[in-house]
Design goal:
There is one protein chain. With 217 residues, the chain is an alpha+beta fold. It has 2 domains: 92 residues, no CATH class; 87 residues, no CATH class. 28% of the residues lie in helices and 26% in strands. The protein has 7 helices and 12 strands.
């Protein structure tokens, strides 16, 4: 459902940009769900050019239009709710959050193109294509609730790019659950284990994390 996300290979020689490290994990299928919290926190996606949200999701990331139109019901771009994904544009530095329908009045209010959309005119996304800086760049993508559960495993299998500190905190919180014999871990193509990850220094490092179920490794 989701096409590959190609990480931007920054040079680790620059003090201004983080180095890139690669972490590949093969885990029991039941452990995949614990990695979904990383998707809620957000991960970096390179964009080929400034795109509408629909173009980003369907053309670049390969998510079906049916899923985008019917399943993704709540969208926030740079903290503002979006109603029309064909006229809302992502550009370098954008923050995009995707969610299935949320319950109650809050969910109804923030649903894209919903009945209550007119009640939030003052906070809805209104930036036009003409005011977007054109060109390639990087955005932060966040997935929530059922969208994370349904799309998350595909994103994890292809690889997500996150801050080293986020991964460090994740490993610290989930170290015991990851220490099962069936977990296979490779850091920059070298085999390691959870203890080895805990000893690493993640400062000024971005991690491309790829997680697959054990049976598919």
């Amino acid at each position: 459902m989701v096409n590959s996300i190609h990480p931007k290979r920054n040079s680790p020689k620059s003090s201004q940009k983080p180095g890139i490290a690669y972490l590949r994990m093969s885990v029991d299928a039941g452990l995949i769900s614990c990695f979904l919290k990383l998707l809620e926190r957000g991960f970096a996606v390179n964009i080929e050019a400034s795109l509408s949200i629909r173009e980003l999701l369907c053309r670049q990331l390969g998510i079906s239009e049916e899923y985008v139109d019917n399943r993704i019901q709540t969208i926030f771009l740079d903290g503002r709710p979006v109603d029309n994904i064909d006229t809302a544009w992502v550009e370098d530095g954008s923050r995009l959050a995707l969610s299935a329908a949320m319950p109650g009045l809050v969910g109804a209010t923030f649903r894209k193109g919903g009945f209550y959309a007119s009640l939030r005119d003052s906070i809805s996304y209104t930036k036009t294509e003409n005011s977007i800086l054109k060109g390639a760049g990087e955005i932060m993508l966040k997935l929530f609730n059922m969208v994370a559960k349904e799309l998350g495993p595909d994103f994890l299998a292809k690889g997500i790019r996150i801050e080293g500190s986020a991964l460090q905190n994740f490993v610290l919180r989930n170290s015991e659950g990851l220490k099962v014999p069936t977990t296979s871990i490779h850091f920059n193509d070298e085999k390691t284990d959870v203890a080895g990850l805990l000893e690493m220094n993640w400062d000024n490092t971005a991690i491309v994390l790829r997680v697959t179920p054990q049976a598919e490794s």
